[in-house]
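ingest -> validate -> predict -> emit
validate: passed (alphabet ok, no gaps, 213 aa)
predict: started
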Amino acid sequence: MFTDATAPSPPPREPRRGPRTPKVVVILMFRARCLQAALLVATLSIMAAACGGDGDHAAVRRGDDTPSSTAASSTASDDAGSSTTGIQPDSTPTTAEPAPTTVPPPESAPPPPVVGVFGTVTAGPTCPVAQVENLCDPRPLVADVEARTADGTLAARTHTDQAGAYRLELAPATYTLLAVTGSSSLPRCLPTTVTVHGGQAVQANIGCDTGIR
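emit:
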């Protein structure tokens, strides 16, 4: 049995639609979306305000830090100037040196004061008979004068000048003065005893015998 090719095809089927959403539910969903949008806008506004405040605080902090930066740069400039001129700050603490202590020498008994014995050495007579026009005065004698202690120890020695004058420095004591001429015979000088007192100069003249009669 043959089918007619020109026969009309059956109409297409319409797709099945689900159940329709009620209008009340659509309105509620729209309002929820609006509320979410409002909340999002409010959140963004708060965040923007917060970000703006932080920027102001940062600017204030940057302004506060400016003097410190200026001071630091000034200090760096001063240090650079010191380095350039060669002047370095002295950071070494100075300590006071202790004063040197002077140790006094040990005290000792002061020596006895030195005093002088002085006089002249003469020799006479110089002529056999003294006369009015010729008195035969003693003549100065050049000699060595020695001062010896009681036990014979030599305490001092000196030499007379051309006028026969001498001077000895001796401590207070008793001495025997001897005039030594270098001759074993004449003139003969007798020992002279003298006592030296503290603070005084004693005169002691020594006479020698020429042997002229």
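The first strand starts at residue 115 and ends at 124.
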